[in-house]
Design brief:
two-stranded antiparallel ribbon, mainly alpha, single chain, 292 residues
Length: 292
C-alpha cells in the first residue's frame, strides 16, 4: 500500500483502495491482434458481481422453494412484497402482457442484483482488501500491489455495461413491437415531423436520446456509489488517525459517530439507487413499446 518503512499517507491509502485487480489481455500476442481497445478487465468487479448474483438467485430460489399457500412467514412475506412491488411497477410501465412475462422478472433481478452489489459497500473498507493482501503475500508477491475493490457498482465499466444491456433490450423491443420498418420510420420522423428535410435532424436527435439515456443511466448509479465508497474511506482514515494517536478525544468519538450515521444513511442510498435503476429500466423498455 505504501513504500516500505513508513505508513501510507491519506492520499496513498485512497489511491491504493481505488485500484482494481486487473488483467490486461493485450499482453497476450494473440489477443493483441483481435482487440484494440477495452482490453483490460477488472477481475474484482467480475468476481463479486458473479458471487453476489449467485447469492441473489439462491435467495429468490429459496423463497420460491419454501413458499406455502397458507399464512406466509416473515421471509416469504418480504419476498412476496418485493415481487408484488416490482410487478405493479412493471404493469404501470409495460402495457404489453406478453412482454411483461420477461420484463417483470428481469426488473426483479435487476433490483435484487444491484441492491446486493451496492450492499458490498457496507463491509468494512479494509476487510477483504487486507485478506487479499495476505493471500498475495503468501503466494510470494508484494502485498503492496495487491489491489482489490469490492463494490462492483462503483466501477464505471459495470454500470455502463448494465445500462448498455438495457439499451440493447430497448432496441430489441422497438424492432419486435414496431417492426424494423416501423422503427426505422420512427427514427427519421420523430420528433419534428416526416418532412424529408427533417430526416437527418430527427435521426441525430434519436441517436443523441439513446446515448444520453444510456450514459446517464449508468453514470447515475456509478456516481452515487463511488461517492459513498470515498466517504467510507475518509471515515476509515479518521479511524487510522485515531489508532496512530490517542492524544485527541474528539477524533475517536467523531470516527464512531460519522461511521454509524453514514452507514445508516447509506442503507437508504443503496436501496434507492437499486430502485431508481430498476424504474428507469422499466420506463425505457416501456418507451420502446410506444410509438412517437
Amino acid at each position: 500500500m505504501a513504500a516500505e518503512g513508513h505508513a501510507p499517507t491519506a492520499s496513498e491509502y485512497i489511491v491504493h483502495h481505488l485500484q482494481h485487480w486487473q488483467v490486461d489481455w493485450s499482453l497476450n500476442p494473440v489477443v493483441q491482434k483481435a482487440i484494440v481497445d477495452f482490453n483490460v478487465i477488472n477481475l474484482d468487479s467480475v468476481l463479486y458481481a458473479l458471487i453476489v448474483g449467485a447469492l441473489g438467485c439462491f435467495v429468490l430460489w429459496l423463497a420460491a422453494r419454501k413458499a406455502t399457500p397458507g399464512v406466509p412467514g416473515r421471509f416469504q412475506a418480504a419476498v412476496e412484497m418485493l415481487v408484488e412491488m416490482v410487478d405493479n411497477q412493471a404493469k404501470s410501465n409495460i402495457h404489453n402482457a406478453k412482454s411483461r412475462k420477461f420484463i417483470a422478472p428481469l426488473a426483479l433481478t435487476v433490483f435484487v442484483w444491484i441492491f446486493l452489489l451496492n450492499a458490498m459497500d457496507m463491509l468494512p473498507v479494509d476487510l477483504l482488501p487486507s485478506l487479499w493482501a495476505k493471500v498475495f503475500e503468501a503466494a510470494g508477491h508484494d502485498p503492496h500491489h495487491a489491489y482489490m475493490r469490492v463494490v462492483p457498482t462503483a466501477d464505471l465499466s459495470t454500470t455502463l455495461g448494465l445500462s448498455t444491456s438495457v439499451l440493447l433490450l430497448c432496441l430489441f423491443y422497438s424492432i419486435k413491437i414496431k417492426g424494423l420498418g416501423g422503427w426505422g420510420h420512427e427514427l427519421i420522423t420523430a420528433p419534428f415531423g416526416a418532412h424529408p428535410v427533417l430526416w437527418p435532424i430527427n435521426l441525430l436527435m434519436q441517436v443523441i436520446e439513446y446515448l444520453a439515456k444510456t450514459v446517464s443511466h449508468g453514470m447515475r448509479l456509478f456516481g452515487n456509489m463511488y461517492a459513498g465508497e470515498l466517504v467510507f474511506m475518509l471515515i476509515a482514515l479518521m479511524g487510522g488517525a485515531m489508532a496512530a494517536s490517542f492524544s485527541g478525544v474528539m477524533l475517536p468519538i467523531g470516527h464512531v459517530i460519522a461511521g454509524t450515521v453514514w452507514a445508516i444513511f447509506h442503507i437508504l442510498v443503496i436501496t434507492l439507487q437499486a430502485f431508481i435503476f430498476m424504474m428507469l429500466t422499466l420506463i425505457y423498455l416501456g418507451q420502446a413499446h410506444e410509438a412517437h
